[in-house]
Each structure stands twice: as structure tokens, then as C-alpha cells.
What does this fold into?
Amino acid sequence: MRVRWIVASFVILLALAGIALGHARLRINESVPTPGALLAESPKEIKLVFSVEPGGLDPAQSLFWLVKQGPDEVIAVGKVDLSVPDRNVMKAELKERLSPGVYLVHWVAISVQDRGFAQGSYSFAVK
Amino acid sequence: MKRSSFVKRGLVIGVCFGIVLGLWASNSLVFGHARFIGANIENGKVYTVAELPDRLELMFEGELTPRSQVYVFSVPSTYLVDKGDVKIEEEHGGGYGHEHKSKLSVGLNKEKLTDGLYQVRWIAVDAEHGAFVEGGFFFAIKG
It folds into this structure.
């Protein structure tokens, strides 16, 4: 019985780890909107701030995709904000208001220094 | 009598037309989105570095936008081993949607390839509907 609980806990931990997989020194620190947010109004931008080694994110391959759930349609693609000296921010300005629904932000981050790879995703909703 | 035969014939034609229309619509839905067909590196196969192609090539049904990406990285250390030079090439079959294919490719940095496990992750954004499809597979290098 105890073994079953240990195995079950391990499986749950693995499932949770699947939310963001990859390089240990490359992780998301802050996001706008926040994961699980239920917004009354459409956000004007999607912004992800990363913890990354000096040199920042590789602008050519670090991206995020904003996907409207249901039809799974890509609404916008976020790129590294080159105006930030640390190159640790990815951003997409939304030209059009997001219609009500659930949205997925799927991100891939590559560090310039050692080509470390990390990916993850989170969701938010617009009422 | 003649009238009932006419009605029956009309019903048969209507049902056949409906079936054809339904099949056409379902094919349009299936083939309207990018669909992974295959790659020049096989899922689950063990290669030597010499056996690997210079570029990983993934084939899709449908047209892809430049929002599509592919990554190749080591597992579990997660370091990229591709060159980041992603290319999308279209192949028109000259027919309808399902004959239109796209090749998503990236160069492999062979100097970084050592014995171990590697993962391919791809994100395909289809040009027709902007649909987001992702997938991946593993291969290994030994010798």
C-alpha cells in the first residue's frame, strides 16, 4: 500500500514537472497575465520575464505562441524584447482585443551562453 | 405509382449527394490543418553520428507559416544541438489541399552530437487556419 502511494506521488511529481521542462538555470520568473488569471478585459500585451544566465535569451529561437483554445488557433507570437539590456524578456503586443475564451501561452527559451533549452506553458482566460 | 417512384429516386439522389458533401467536408477539415507525415530521422532509432543527415527534415501535409519552429536537444541535460537555421519549403502537388506538403528543416550541429538520447520538438502553425499543432520524438546516438 505504501509503495503504491510512493509510486503515485512520483507520477504526480512527474506530471507537474511536465508543465515546465528543461534547463535548470532557465526558468520563468514573472508573467503577464499570470497563470490561471480570469481577466475581465483583454490584456494589451503578453509578457514573460525569465531568469537566465548572462547573455540572455537567443532572440532567433526563443519564442512564445499565444493559442486560443478550442480551435487551437495561434493569435500572436512573442519574441525577445531587444530593448531590454538583459535580454530576459519575451513580449507580444496585442493589436486586437482577445475575444472571451481560454488562452494557452506555450513558450520555448534558449540561452545564448550555453544553448540551454527550456519549454513550458500556462493558461489564462478572458471573460 | 409513377409519383412514388419519382419521390424514391429523389430521396436516393439526395442521400447520395449528402454523403458526398459530408465526405468532402470532413476531408477539408482533416486536410485543412498541418499534419505531421514523417521525418528523415526515425522515432526511437539508434544512429551513429555518421549515419545522421546534415539537416533534420520534417514533412507535413498542408502549408506552414514562418511561425513554425523545430528544436533538437539532448536529454536529460537539454542543450540544443541544432544550428537554429530553420527553413520552410513548400511542395505543391498540383491538386487539392491534401497534396500540398511542407518541409520544416533545421541543420544539426554534428560537433555537439555525442553518445546519448536526443529529443526533437516541433511546433507547426498552419497557414490556412493558423492552427497550432505540436509534437516530437526521440532518437539516440551510439558510436
Summary: The radius of gyration of chain A is 16 Å. The longest helix of chain A spans residues 2-17. The domain at 22-126 of chain A is CATH 2.60.40.1220 (Immunoglobulin-like). Chain A has one helix and nine strands.
